[in-house]
């Protein structure tokens, strides 16, 4: 149908397709991302209209407000055709002559503008009216995303967007809201709540504290079947959430404020012209589904006589019935066996009755067939005497809500799996980043494919190895304070060096004490290793100067030649370099001077051919090598300055 799911009728497309297309078009054209999302929403309405779904929308009512009231019900029915459709939840919270306020809830982000385009196109194409939409409030709606943010407690956070829709709503208000009661209705005698509960034997009446003040006889009996050793008087005065669970509308908590906003309230839809208008006039089509909890551990009020309003009434209220009468009704109900009973789903509408400031849930149990009726411990004569409840059960027809419950549970498991996969993906990325900081990415991928760590050992004909040692000239008597200062200094210096390392030009091998080691040409073969290492050394020297740390300098030295490299260790594996080249490069650093870069004669010849500025230092005694000619690296080639 509509909204976030791009459920094209021949293929299921990924959620991120539309945001990615919008982002690509925005990058190419320079137009805002939101503009394309709104456009795509309009296009989807035109698309599904080709398949006749526009007729389904127009059948919901004569007015645009009728459609807005019915969106959730449309989604409910469409879920049986498109099983993987992730429909959001939408309810009107305010309606007036100039428009309405719509609250949108979803577990996915980035589709609020897409919905906006759909609403604009539906209003224009199907109802011939212009609508302006603005966002009043928005929570957790990340632009361009598809998965909602993850809460600390686990699961996806709910995206909530409150829209103000401005349009000409005067005719709807005149025909649906500002209706005067017929004089004959104003002359009706008071009606006792017993009559209401006889007509709706599964009804609930809730006060402002969301406590149960009255219950239909058959609902009491169903509760008793699931609570064999409990007194039915515990229902009176108990919180409704202790014994029932709100399944629909989804995405809201079962509170007075939320239910009141979605129930048949006069205050939310303007003032009527007469106080005695019918107060249970049907103003909305929001359907509620409530599930009776099995074996609930809640303990309500055991003394019903403490409830002063245990017998509310409808319309013009007659409160003459006492709570003792209610207690007799409840205690007179015979118990039945409760083995193997399935939970009961109740579906109906919440009506707000102003006279007693209470909510009345007028409902019927959702039963597919005679087998389910038996499994619930009910009989045909237990069902509402009006409507088609008995005929539907007897004939074996199904409302599909039982199937919907199963699908909802599967969707909940799918959402939990999606959250788990998102967390696992996040943890995998963090693990990969940690692994790549210890060993090269190319080596890690080979190990992940099952290669033996011993087989990662590799020889390189020529690479350039660099050592850089941070020098400190300021010392102190306090060894602990000096050590803390040293740690902070090394962290600042090495962090600056890390930002200069870019694969495959260079690879950070390790840090030992105050010494930083890097290589170019391994593990990724690089014919320009000497050039890249010279650039890195010059940038290191520049970065130390830019840090402007008092008394801090750096000695740098590097040399080119053959090496052998491989993974060493199991607990904390490291990528290590071996060979005479490594020893010579280390000597270039140790025999150098602070804030200077010393290179071997062999490497200097390579750099001279590339135009780097070098000055001859002389011969330096290198352990195991004798006297070696060395050079100072002064700067890059002239064209790089």
TrEMBL record:
Question: What is a single cellular component term in the Gene Ontology annotation?
Answer: guanylate cyclase complex, soluble
PROSITE patterns named among the record's database cross-references: GUANYLATE_CYCLASE_1, GUANYLATE_CYCLASE_2
The annotated regions of Polar residues compositional bias extend over 307-324
GO MF annotation, one: heme binding
UniProt entry keywords in alphabetical sequence: cGMP biosynthesis, Cytoplasm, GTP-binding, Lyase, Nucleotide-binding
Annotated region Disordered: where? 299-331
Which SMART domains does the record associate with it?
A: CYCc
Transmembrane portions of the chain: none
- Which superkingdom heads the taxonomic lineage of this protein's source? Eukaryota
The UniProt record lists the EC number as 4.6.1.2
Q: Where in the cell is it found?
A: Cytoplasm
Q: Which GO terms describe its biological process?
A: cGMP-mediated signaling; response to oxygen levels
Q: Which family does it belong to?
A: Belongs to the adenylyl cyclase class-4/guanylyl cyclase family.
Q: What is this protein called?
A: guanylate cyclase
Species annotation: Anopheles stephensi (Indo-Pakistan malaria mosquito)
